[in-house]
Design brief:
Helix content of chain A: under 10%
Number of strands of chain B: 11
Number of helices of chain B: 0
Largest sheet of chain B: 6 strands, mixed
Oligomer: heterodimer
Number of helices of chain A: 0
Distance between the termini of chain A: 36 Å
Number of strands of chain A: 11
Order of helices and strands of chain A: EEEEEEEEEEE
Structural class of chain B: mainly beta
Shape of chain A: globular
Strand content of chain B: over 45%
Order of helices and strands of chain B: EEEEEEEEEEE
Radius of gyration of chain B: 13 Å
Strand content of chain A: over 45%
Distance between the termini of chain B: 36 Å
Radius of gyration of chain A: 13 Å
Structural class of chain A: mainly beta
Largest sheet of chain A: 7 strands, mixed
Chain lengths: 111, 113
């Protein structure tokens, strides 16, 4: 198995632009998580899905953030409009038997 | 919100020494996990200990859990330079029916050759 695949690996954009981060979880995993990592705040849970259904989005910072999981093999995290304070590494993880498997992350820089 | 808090924030040791990291948490949990992150990479699962377990081993790793003190420790024995990484504890809260996993701020470990 290729593991959790995230794209793009790096994203540089200007303030106000829409950003879409993509994630392909490991086949057979029924839970998917989006985390954001910064030096100041560490790893923050943004949202998690179970069987493609959003269960808890209380960590989504603002209405500018939205996440979807249209099927078991794909999820997106969208920021519209983006702001410099959104700069961070965004991780997607899928889980099986309570263990999380992380992608390599998307390094987002909003200028 | 963060559930776990690791201690120390940073640790520097000589190769061959043992490294101990501690984690404290606030609420009742189903399990506690430890993850490792190398610079610029995603987190990698190391070990999981359930709330009814007190100690678990995996290779050079030893994890203990004290639910009465809401704390856990990770011991890495005979450390190697390749163990240099950040280590995170993560808890699955007991009140949730789904596997909501919250991470602590992590301990940065440097193993000097």
């Amino acid at each position: 198995d290729a593991g959790v695949i995230q794209s793009p690996r790096h994203e540089v954009t200007e303030m106000g632009q829409e950003v879409t981060l993509r994630c392909k979880p490991i086949s057979g995993h029924n839970s998917l998580f989006w985390y954001r990592q910064t030096m100041m705040r560490g790893l923050e849970l943004l949202i998690y899905f179970n069987n493609n259904v959003p269960i808890d989005d209380s960590g989504m910072p603002e209405d500018r953030f939205s996440a979807k999981m249209p099927n078991a093999s794909f999820s997106t995290l969208k920021i519209q409009p983006s702001e410099p304070r959104d700069s961070a590494v965004y991780f997607c993880a899928s889980s099986l038997n309570e263990k999380l498997f992380f992608g390599s992350g998307t390094q987002l820089s909003v200028l | 919100s963060q559930q776990g808090e690791e201690d120390p924030q940073a640790l520097s040791i000589q190769e061959g020494e043992n490294a101990t990291m501690n984690c404290s948490y606030k609420t009742s949990i189903n399990n506690l996990q430890w993850y490792r992150q190398n610079s610029g990479r995603g987190l990698v699962h190391l070990i999981l200990i359930r709330s009814n377990e007190r100690e678990k081993h995996s290779g050079r790793l030893r994890v203990t859990l004290d639910t009465s003190k809401k704390s856990s420790s990770l011991l890495i024995t005979a450390s190697r330079a390749a163990d240099t990484a950040s280590y995170f504890c993560a808890t699955e809260e007991a009140k949730t029916s789904y596997d909501k996993v919250i991470f602590g701020p992590g301990t940065s470990l440097s193993v000097i050759p």
